[in-house]
Design a protein that fits this description.
The two termini are about 40 Å apart. This protein has two domains: about 10-150, 3-Layer(aba) Sandwich (Rossmann fold), CATH 3.40.50; about 180-415 and about 430-475, Dihydrodipicolinate Reductase, domain 2 (2-Layer Sandwich), CATH 3.30.360. The protein is globular and about 80 Å long. The strands form two sheets. A nine-stranded mixed sheet has the order 14-13-12-11-7-10-9-8-15, with helices on both faces. It is about 35% helix and about 20% strand. By secondary structure, it is of the alpha/beta class. It has helices at about 20-35, 55-70, 80-85, 100-105, 125-135, 155-170, 185-195, 225-230, 235-250, 260-275, 295-300, 400-405, 405-410, 415-425, 435-455, 470-475, and strands spanning about 10-15, 45-50, 90, 115-120, 145-150, 175, 210-215, 280-285, 310-315, 325-330, 340-345, 365-370, 375-380, 390-400, 460. The chain binds nicotinamide-adenine-dinucleotide. The site of nicotinamide-adenine-dinucleotide has 23 residues, from helix 1. GO terms for molecular function: glucose-6-phosphate dehydrogenase activity; NADP binding.
Length: about 475
């Protein structure tokens, strides 16, 4: 397969936090791969801006190492690395002070044909400072874009305050709130499958769908960022943003066009249609030590922590399409496998002509986010061989790497697509301010509820599928979790 590279305008991309972990592991390797694909115009520049004192040469040395480590198939392409590094510059800047701003201004090109984008890859406490600095120091125009990393707020109040602060300096159409799950190839394919085929959409409703499962399971613990994580937990860190965005794409009505506001309007309606969740439909967990690796409380350096490293919940989207269809969400750390999947489980046929011996069968559309991005449709067929009509479920499998060739591996990185969307001015895969606030409006009362009751998360073994209660949550409805082993 030959991938089609859509040209973008020349750009100046300024990465605040250009020496940080995210810049090293994701943002710069993503830009490098776009460079290798020929998508980075010759006159484009990437300007790292952070607190450390260094010059262009030192920054290029620093990023060279990152590209060798995280550049995937281009990691040993020394010529390409040097070519890309020639586009890099560095300015020491203090987000809260005076230092560096005039040097940055001198470096930027005042040319309306050059897109200017600022990536805020710094801690959230600096987002508003940076927006103010960029605006007040005359470093932006009406076309300038800012990219804001997660977390976007800690609750509704802080998210609203941040939206208001950013709105003082930038219009909504200049603000790109990133959720890298939306940039994943499979997530976009979910929309292609739903809205590009006649096959699925007529069945995509409460009449034919039994339930939906969304799982994001990680094997890693909270490790080095334990004390930060302890202030948020799985609900804030994963459900409020990533899992809810996936739920929205599954549950939304077809937008009139694949355009930013048309898509985001439909996602917002889904979030607003979410029912509150009863406490007995939520299971929170915390991993224990397996003897070798530390427990959650040790990682978090908080021996009495009540923060969850695992959560499973059942919720409903109260509208005509989804009335009484359960959505089971589950995410956690230190689980038995690293697996992210959305599963649309269809109902059984209304009557089995093959008799009770043929068993119970349900079609499942499984959308895998990791590992091996791809989709599988489970269909029921006759078990081969003589001896009557026995039925068996087999997968119709579509692994992108297999179907589209090895290049598919290379185009899947979410940051590559999302950064290029920023340059193109396409906000479809970015969250709008009202969406983020609506998501917090749903999660806040749930969090307040368990905090008020003083609920403790259930301990679970590292390397398991989470607390037993998470299995009961779905088993008592006559269903079971898919995917990860207990
Ligand atoms: P980090 O601590 O590794 O890097 C922070 C960067 O900000 C450094 O370059 C530092 O020099 C710069 N910085 C700090 N204070 C500054 C100041 N006053 N003025 C100018 N620059 C300053 O953090 P990170 O892991 O790269 O994360 C950056 C952002 O991205 C955070 O909001 C984080 O929540 C988000 N994020 C990170 C990841 C990840 O995998 N690392 C994933 C998703 C989201």
């Amino acid at each position: 397969m030959v991938s089609r590279v859509i040209p973008v305008e020349p750009f100046d991309l300024i990465i605040f936090g250009g020496t940080g972990d995210l810049a090293r592991r994701k943002i710069l390797p993503a830009l490098f791969r776009r460079y290798c694909s020929g998508q980075m115009p010759e006159s484009s520049r990437v300007i790292g801006a952070a607190r450390s004192e260094m010059d262009d040469a030192a920054y290029r040395d620093f990023i060279r190492e990152a590209l060798v480590e995280f550049g995937k198939s281009q990691a040993d392409n020394a010529e390409a690395i040097e070519g890309f590094l020639a586009h890099l510059h560095y300015v020491p800047v203090d987000a809260k002070g005076e230092g560096g701003w005039s040097a940055l201004k001198d470096l930027l090109r005042d040319d309306e044909n050059v897109v200017r984008a600022y990536y805020f890859s710094v801690g959230p406490s600096l987002f508003a400072d940076l927006a103010g600095q960029v605006r007040n120091r005359g470093l932006s125009n009406r076309d300038t874009r800012i990219v804001v990393e997660k977390p976007f707020g800690h609750d509704l109040e802080s998210a609203r305050a941040l939206n208001e602060e950013l709105a003082q300096y930038f219009h909504e159409d200049q603000i790109y709130r990133i959720d890298h799950y939306l940039g994943k190839e499979t997530v976009q394919n979910l929309m292609a499958v739903r809205f590009g085929n006649m096959l699925f959409e007529p069945l995509w409703n409460a009449q034919y769908v039994d339930h939906i499962q969304i799982t994001v399971a990680e094997t890693v613990g909270v490790g080095g960022r334990g004390s930060y994580y302890d202030k948020s937990g799985a609900m804030r860190d994963m459900v409020q943003n990533h899992l809810m965005q996936l739920l929205c794409l599954i549950a939304m009505e077809p937008p009139a066009r694949f355009e930013a506001d048309a898509v985001r309007d439909e996602k917002l309606k889904v979030i607003r249609a979410l029912d509150p969740v009863d406490p007995d439909q939520i299971v929170r967990g915390q991993y224990t030590s397996d003897g070798e690796m530390p427990s959650y409380r040790e990682d978090a350096e908080n021996p009495t922590s009540k923060t969850e490293s695992f959560i499973a919940l059942k919720c409903y989207v109260s509208n005509w399409r989804w009335a009484n269809t359960p959505f089971y969400l589950r995410t956690g750390k230190r689980l038995s496998s690293r697996a992210s999947e959305i599963a649309v489980v269809f109902k059984e046929t209304p009557h089995s002509i093959f008799g009770i011996d043929s068993g119970r069968h349900r079609n499942v559309l499984s959308i895998r986010l990791q590992p091996n991005e791809g989709m599988t449709l489970g269909v029921t067929i006759k078990e081969p061989g003589p001896g009557g009509m026995r039925l068996v479920d087999v997968p119709l499998d579509m692994s992108f790497a297999e179907a589209l060739g090895p290049e598919a591996e290379e185009v899947t990185d979410a940051y590559e697509r999302l950064i290029m969307d920023v340059i193109r001015g396409n906000q479809t895969l970015f969250m709008r301010g009202d969406e983020v606030e609506a998501a917090w409006s749903w999660t806040d009362p749930l969090i307040e509820g368990w905090e008020r009751r003083g609920d403790s998360p259930k301990p679970y073994d590292a390397g398991s599928a989470g607390p037993d209660d998470a299995a009961f949550l779905i088993n008592r409805d006559g269903r079971r979790w898919r995917g990860i082993k207990s």
